[in-house]
Write a structure and sequence with these properties.
Layout: H1 3-19, H2 26-34, E1 40-44, H3 50-57, E2 61-66, H4 69-78, E3 84-86, H5 94-99, E4 106-111, H6 121-134, E5 135-146, H7 153-160, E6 166-171, E7 185-191
Parallel strand pairs: 1-2, 1-4, 2-3, 4-5
Antiparallel strand pairs: 5-7, 6-7
Helix pairs in contact: 1-4, 2-3
């Protein structure tokens, strides 16, 4: 089977799951919780676009990039093809994104569904520089992946160890289940500021007078 046929098969499977109502929006709900309304969000390895679409429906300015035309074709058929750009991780830098009509500052960067495991070593190592360049001061990088697979939690922590980004939370699924050494899956949140202050109301908090 050729690589192209493999992507075609994957895209067809995900398209079928979307059209039959499979819930493929759990990552989007997690990201939405972390971001103020109207945030600019970049989904790296967006696939057929379910996360981007769900975040758009929540009022965010979400954009997806993926190097694979087979999956982006389906994304354009199911959703708005203006939300998606064919772009690889090693092409990601502000001047290239600007030239392709993408923003260059984001409140969140998302890699969901084992995307890190399929990046080359060069691409994976570039994630730290990408995050530091493109995230705003309160922005977060959110990585969902198999915990002990290639580019799992140990590799991720090593990658960001010498960067401005700090691990501010880690869970064993998109539903905030605690992470421990037995967890097979991981959702990791990295940010420049552990406190992430400076958000504007309304944000669901109404402080009573004391």
């Amino acid at each position: 089977m050729s690589l192209s046929k493999g992507y075609d098969s994957y895209a067809a499977k995900m398209r079928s799951m979307t059209l039959t109502g499979t819930d493929l929006e759990t990552a989007a709900r997690f990201v939405d919780m972390l971001c103020p309304r109207g945030s600019r969000i970049l989904d790296i390895g967006c696939g057929i676009g379910n996360t981007v679409n769900a975040l758009r429906q929540k009022g965010h300015q979400a954009f997806g990039i993926d190097p694979t035309p087979e999956v982006l074709k389906v994304a354009g058929e199911l959703f708005n093809d203006a939300w998606f750009t064919q772009l690889a991780v090693d092409e990601l830098k502000a001047e290239v994104m600007h030239a392709r009509g993408l923003p260059v500052s984001f409140g969140a960067i998302v890699l969901a569904g084992n995307v890190p495991a399929f990046l080359s070593t060069k691409e994976f190592r570039k994630l730290s520089a990408i995050a530091q360049e493109l995230l705003n001061d309160t922005g977060v990088m959110i990585i969902g992946s198999t915990a002990r697979a290639r580019s799992g939690t140990v590799d991720q922590d090593d990658l960001f160890a010498d960067s401005r980004l700090q691990l501010v939370g880690r869970f064993s699924d998109w539903h905030l289940s605690p992470f421990d050494s037995t967890a097979q899956w991981s959702v990791s949140i990295y940010a420049k500021d552990r406190k992430r202050t400076g958000f504007k109301a309304p944000d669901g908090i109404f402080v009573l007078p004391v």
